[in-house]
Design a protein that fits this description.
Strand content: 15-25%
Order of helices and strands: EHEHEEH
Structural class: alpha+beta
Distance between the termini: 17 Å
Helix content: 10-25%
Length: about 110
Amino acid sequence: MRVYVVYVPILRGDTEATVPAAMEKLPDSRVVFFWDSRGEMTESYAAVLQLPEGRPAWDVYLAFDRVAEWKSEAPKPSYWMHQLGGVSPDRWLDGQKFAEKTNKLLGEKRK
């Protein structure tokens, strides 16, 4: 399993300087952290997840299968959840459900 956490400047206090303190919340060697100063990930994934116009994809949780690759465009996740207002409530973050879906993906054999 690989975990990528991408911090973006959405809220007033979101700066690159706040990332080290946020990183302490996930002290695991499998986690890789990134700072996306221009919020490019939020735009790429807003389109992939088909979010409402103008809604950035932040505070989203994406799970990919073993063969997912980022090429010219952001890959579509196998499963995703969020904590966004105005977006489908059936995908509202439920940690237990997300863990179950992620564990299922981890158990799948390479296609």
